[in-house]
Write a structure and sequence with these properties.
Mean pLDDT: 93
Shape: globular
Low-confidence stretches: none
CATH class of the largest domain: Alpha Beta
Structural class: alpha/beta
Number of domains: 2
Strand order of the largest sheet: 4-3-5-6-7-8-9-14-13
Largest sheet: 9 strands, mixed
Helix content: 25-40%
CATH superfamily of the largest domain: ANL, N-terminal domain
Strand content: 15-25%
Distance between the termini: 27 Å
Radius of gyration: 23 Å
Bound molecules: 5'-O-[hydroxy(phenylacetyl)phosphoryl]adenosine
CATH topology of the largest domain: Rossmann fold
Number of helices: 12
Length: 439
Amino acid sequence: MATREIPFRDRRIETAPRAVIEWMQLDGLRRQIDNALKTEYYRPKLLAAGITSSDDIKTLDDIRRVPFTTKGDLREAYPFGLLAVPKSDVVRVHASSGTTGTPTVIYLTQRDLDLASDTMARSLTAAGGNKNDIIQNMMTYGLFTGGLGFHYGAELMGAMVIPTSSGNTLRQLKFMKDFGTTMVHATPSYLLHLHAAIEAEGYRRDDLKLRMAITGAEPHSEELRRKIEEKLGIEVYNCYGMSEMNGPGVAFECVFRAGMHAWEDRYIVEILDPETFEPVPEGEIGELVLTILCRDAMPLLRYRTRDLTRFIPGPCACGRTHRRLARFTGRTDDMLIINGVNVFPSQIEEVLLKTKGVGANYFIIAEKSGDLDKLTVQVEITPEMFADDARVINALRDRLKSEMSALITINPVMEIKQPGSLPVSEGKAKRVDDRRPKD
Ligand code: DLL
């Protein structure tokens, strides 16, 4: 590893002294405050906190006077409450995966999009990607940022990008072989699935030119990374991001693969105790709170990601000064990530409760089925429905399945139960059993 060349997209910024990074952050924060004051949503909140202009932010520590923002706030501000530029300046909209009801959307100007692509290109370069790579993007294209967000960065780096999107594994394999794909972007569970298909279809290792994979969008362990690396004979790089923060590439592993560098000229990164909101001692686990500095169209100040991680103390061998985040250990809320798609139990409940013939009691089970995640939703039917024949019950099952797929983009196994057959909990209902191994 010591003799390995360390690639940079912008060495000056990526290795800037901390004082310079902090100067950029303060400057960026002040700009974001002025920007936020232009939005319908933030203006009253900032004024109530005694912040009337960027002049009230004199040091980085003053960020502690700034109120937090949550996913709920984003929903409340939907669709344009957080817009800080004329609508005609917006060129792109994205949303979080698996959203239903009121989605959490983001909007970007052309400059924002260019910066987001540059962040992604910087990330891919740090991991050793380059213009000779042939990259197959197996993440879903559409509102989800794993598709287009990644795509534009990979193109900016100069690579050949094949936007196969998710699914259709046999076609993925054919493209990998025929085009000589060197890098893939996929969820860790899909990479395992891909490997199983490679074996089943009888591909030989030298049919494929694959050398590395970028993976993210769902939690996974170091052991799982090693397993994928061994099976596919490639290097696997971890990538963190979220739609609210422009998508993948908020933090990314460099060639040393020892934690993900959070791009601190583009984001202010705090790790806080989720109960006291005080910073945790360096190296301890807390909730990641992010402030985006590289977006004009839509400011997001002190956004509570609900993701749990810690800073990895000390310098990285690559020479980058942007701090590293450790692999994510979970979330502070009940959001499930099923094959990369975010699902809140409340969204499932919403679909169930608006369907005639379905009772109020339900239970959600998440488990592994082979390499992929499997979601089962058990629901009771109403006594009136129970009297009906099997065809009616089958029709109900099909209807629920298609509603789940249309509204939450998941395809759960639907189990229809007799009235009164699911356990009724005393006190706070336990409605989710996540049986997937915690590694
Ligand atoms: O998952 C963006 C993304 C696409 C990231 C491709 C990486 C690769 P959302 O759909 O908004 O956006 O989901 C964001 O996914 O809050 C985490 O809980 C989880 N997540 C994302 N990356 C990782 C990772 C995209 N590397 C939510 N490890 C986040 C663990 C991750 N969890």
